[in-house]
Amino acid sequence: MNAKSLHDLFAQVRSKKLSSDEAVQRLRHLPFEDLGFAKVDHHRALRQGMPEVIFSQGKTPAQVAQIFSRLASHNEDGNILATRATEEQFQAVAAEVPKVEYRALARAITLQRDRKRYGKGIIAVVSAGTSDIPVAEEAVVTAELMGNRVQHLYDVGVAGIHRLLAHRSVLAEARVIIVCAGMEGALPSVVGGLVGVPVIAVPTSIGYGAAFEGLAALLGMLNSCASNVSVVNIDNGFGAAYVASLINRK
Question: Which of 69, 115, 139, 227 has the most crowded Cβ, counting Cβ within 10 A?
């Protein structure tokens, strides 16, 4: 349920194509629907402009399928996204909801029905190394489903900085940039020093022992001397893309 669907619902009642009782039935599950194991937030698109996203990790395939199905039926024209999903969870969703896709590298289940562009510019997603691509892909998928034009640059880390500089035109065109990096997490600072737009840094859990599963990259990014760099949690490509999408709509 979003603003457009509410306007359409009220118009159908006004034109007497829909009775008031039928309209009330459709609105019955606002602001949320209690499934027992989950309270599905059908009101979120009205509050935030984007529907609830399912974090699949730790949920059973049946739980993911039921939540996905309820979101899809109540948000008839909108996109539905489940992150951190397994192939088994996807199969359960696919049995309930037609036309869903599994983006294996991003570990995301998607249902894309709304292809309108809500973002005003381009979101660029940059990964330092090939090992960081899964986190970057989660950001790409999220940004795309939230109505943005997305470009990506992969494997352009500081160990070979000429690879990044060869694509400065992509960075210059972007309205928001997401940078995913593990190891020491230096790439967001470099990118931040090259552009005059928000840079959202995503530390990844890539690196040898002293990387502490992304903690070293996180601390490095938090201590960035580039003033346009902000930081999300380790491996949180989704969170970076969500914030980037909000920025890109303004």
Answer: 139
